[in-house]
Amino acid sequence: MTSIELPAEHIQRIERDGDVVAARQTGRRIAAEMGFGRPEQALIATAISELARNIVSYAERGSITFRAEDHAGRRGLRIVAEDRGPGIPDLAQAMSDGFSTGNSLGLGLPGTQRIMDEFDIRSIPGEGVTVTVAKWISR
Predict the structure, then answer these.
(1) Which of 16, 60, 65, 66 is most buried, by CB atoms within 10 Å?
(2) Are the CB atoms for 26 and 12 separated by under 8 Å?
(3) pTM, whole model, 2 decimals?
């Protein structure tokens, strides 16, 4: 593993469709610089797209934070998507394949959970949603 210098944290504001694209590109670039292979870069970019799209669609504005991490020789990228929108009233239902309150297929959150190594979602109705995901470089 090569040692590279990355900022401890990068925050991307999410307010419109162009921000979704920018966040996806930023995440993919950081993943490449960290040494993730192309398949993992694509998975990370897909997860970012889903999370950022949810912010634009349901909360109108929020942020995506990228953090390069190194724990006990294990290197990864942690991504935190936060908004102060209406929140998700029923997390269990939202995490069910096929459920959607919008015009999508409802695969966003469950799909994101499947493609990332770590997934945590917290929501307080009326106060917003925080989704934290991580992907670790395979040894």
Answers:
(1) 66
(2) yes
(3) 0.89
The residue with tokens 């991490």 is: 69
Instruction: Please spell the DSSP secondary structure of 86-106, one letter per residue.
Output: S--S-HHHHTSTT--SSSS-S
The residue among 1 and 80 whose pLDDT is bigger is 80
Contact 20, 59 (CB under 8 A): no
List phi, psi (to 5°) of 27. -60, -45
| CA 46/CA 24 separation, integer angstroms | 7
Inter-residue contact 93 to 101 (CB < 8 Å): no
Burial code (b: 16+ CB inside 10 Å, e: under 16) for 103-120 equals: eeebebbbebbebbeebe
* Structure confidence at residue 5 (pLDDT): 59
At 58, list the tokens: 């349901």
The values of phi and psi at residue 87, to 5°, are 80, 180
